[in-house]
Amino acid sequence: MDAPSMLQVTRHGDGGHVVELALDRPSAMNAINDQIAREITAVTADLAADRTVRAVVVTSTHEKAFCVGADLKERNTFTDAQMMDHRLVTRQAYRGVLDLPVPVVAAVEGYALGGGMEIALSCDLLVAGERATLGLPEVGVGVIPGGGGTQLLTRRVGWSRAASMIFTARRLGAAEARELGVVDELVPAGTARDRALELGAQIAANSPVAVRNAKKAMRLGMGTDLASGLEIEDGCWRATAFSQDRAEGVAAFVDKRVPDWPGR
């Protein structure tokens, strides 16, 4: 008999263009075990291939935890070979979120620690409730952030702020996380999901071709020099400017109506 799924996938809005991916392992505060990592990989692969998806919102069914990180109880049973196999599985899961071609919004309530914070950092926007707690405590248990944390946090907040968090393994309250730039929007406790879904709907109202290409240009250009980045932007502009979405967008503007995006 198959184990119950540890993810809930829900489509929102007319057309179902906003997809909510809810972590659903409440008995362990969504700790990342082998099963949930494999499910994240499979679901994000499906979403990446689905051209009807315009935004993804990552949430949790647990009111006190977004995700507390790796399932250390499970890992404690692994041999070295099993640990390496699990490493490949978890890397695929984090990359599955990071590489989604549409904007991804994280809605964090409660604890987002270790791998849980790395899932949130893999998203493009991070909304947190005011009682959220975030941190990368891996060095305190003899490892380092391995789901992109050393790279994504540094890119988000700069070297010194990332170094302070990672080297000390300290946890941040939501207000401090917002001040440091870890969190993009701070909202009243219990409302992060609603706000993230609202952002998803705002994103989905725009041209899906334009939004995908804007994200592509930003992601690819981020690690290059300015001249290379501008060339990447130009390629993405050309891919957008001659699309059916561009023709519909201009026509809708002239006709003073809401665009009906072809998505092509």
From TrEMBL:
Q: Which family would the database say this protein is a member of? A: Belongs to the enoyl-CoA hydratase/isomerase family.
Protein name, per record: Enoyl-CoA hydratase
Under InterPro entries, the record lists:
ClpP/crotonase-like_dom_sf, Enoyl-CoA_hyd/isom_CS, Enoyl-CoA_hydra/iso, Enoyl-CoA_hydra_C
Classify the source by domain of life.
Answer: Bacteria
**Which of UniProt's keywords are assigned here?**
Lipid metabolism, Lyase
Is DNA repair set as a keyword in this record? no
Q: Name one Pfam family in it.
A: ECH_1
